[in-house]
Amino acid sequence: MIENGTVSQDQTQAKDLWRIREVVPEAILHEGGCCYKYDISLPLPDIYDIVNDTKERMKGKGVVIGYGHLGDANLHLNVAVEKKSDEVEDILEPWVYEWTAKKGGSISAEHGLGLMKANYISYSKSDPMIEIMKSIKTIFDPKGILNPYKVLPK
C-alpha cells in the first residue's frame, strides 16, 4: 500500500510535516476558485480508489487530490474547480456518499458531519442509529442551542 513515506525525526520535522498537511486545501485553490471537500473514512484496501474514480468521473473538469491518515482510515478528498456549479455538484453528490457507503465507509470522519452533510447521514448510519444519536443530543442539548442543524438532520 505504501511505496514511499516520511517519518519525522524530531519535533521540528513533525511540525513542518503537519504544516504541509494543513496548507494542502489552500494550495489546491491555486488550481481553481472553489474546492469541494469530503472527509471520509474507508476500509484501507479501498482508501485511495475513490480518488482515482473521482478523477475519472470529473473528466478533467478539475483537480482531484486525496490525502489523509492510514491509522484511522481517514481520507480528505478535495476537488478544485474554477467555480462552484450545479454541474460539478451533480457529478460529485450524492455519488461520493454512495461510493463511500458501498465500500462500508463513513461519509463523516475526523471533522464531523457539519452543516453540509447532515442530510446525507443515512448513507453511513441506519435510521435507528440516527434516532439514537438524536436522543443522545437531546439529553446533552435539550434546548437545541449547541450547533443547531450542524450535527443531525431535522
Number of strands: 3
What would you report as the Rg, rounded to the nearest angstrom? 17 Å
Instruction: Note the overall shape.
Output: globular
Order of helices and strands: HEHEEHHHH
Assembly status: single chain
SS-based class: alpha+beta
Strand order of the largest sheet: 1-3-2
Mean pLDDT: 89
Query: What's the number of helices?
Result: 6
Terminal Cα span: 40 Å
The residue ranges in which pLDDT falls below 50 over 5 or more consecutive positions are: none
Strand content: 5-15%
**Relative helix content:** 25-40%
Q: Mind explaining what this structure looks like?
A:
With 154 residues, this protein is α+β, with helices and mostly antiparallel strands. Helices cover 40% and strands 15% of the residues. It is built from six helices and three strands, in the order H-E-H-E-E-H-H-H-H. A three-stranded antiparallel sheet has the order 1-3-2, with helices on both faces. The radius of gyration is 17 Å and the shape is globular.
Kindly summarize this structure in a few lines.
This protein is 40% helix and 15% strand.
Which key phrases capture this entry?
154 residues, 3-stranded antiparallel beta sheet, 40% helix
